[in-house]
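This part of the workshop introduces the protein records we will be handling. A learned vocabulary of local backbone shapes supplies the integers on the structure line. Getting from the letters to the tokens is the skill we practise here. As an example, a complete record with its sequence and its structure tokens follows.
=====
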Amino acid sequence: MRRRLALLGLRLPEVKPPRFHYVPVVVHQGLAYVSGQVPFVDGEIKPTGKVDKDVSIEEAKEAAQLCTLQALAWLNQNLPGGLDEVERAIKVTGFVASSKDFGQQPVIIDAASEVLTKVFGQAGQHARSAIGLAELPGNASVEIEFIFALKRRGGSAQQQRRPGIKVIEKR
């Protein structure tokens, strides 16, 4: 998978432990649930504000791409086999902090969908929701959560997982 990412010109960002009381990835019965990702750049949420008022559509699309790469980085860090364990994307739920009368949330979240299909091919296709709302944590412009199906493997992933952030797992 590293080679595929490099060929696509994509680089997984460094992810840092959550600031609040949750885990970034929960694996349960063959599914990996990735907590909502906001676009972090150099430890800060960027861009901030409402799309179509404070943040351009292009900036918001870049933020959605970054949220997706962060989700992939969490999976890569916390699954024993990294991204090679991902069988397919299942669901993407995207939240866009929107100015009044802005209704192009699907355009923003399409940027996340495009990353997944580039990385995983047809297995990157997924069900999706694109939701506009008034505010997001930290005044983020975009937040996205993900669900992925994992390939079956032997042994307990809790015993095999990489050191670092805890992954809660029950299969």
In short: Strands lie at 25-28, 31-37, 40-41, 44-45, 86-97, 127-133, 142-150, 168-170. Confidence is low (pLDDT under 50) at residues 155-162.
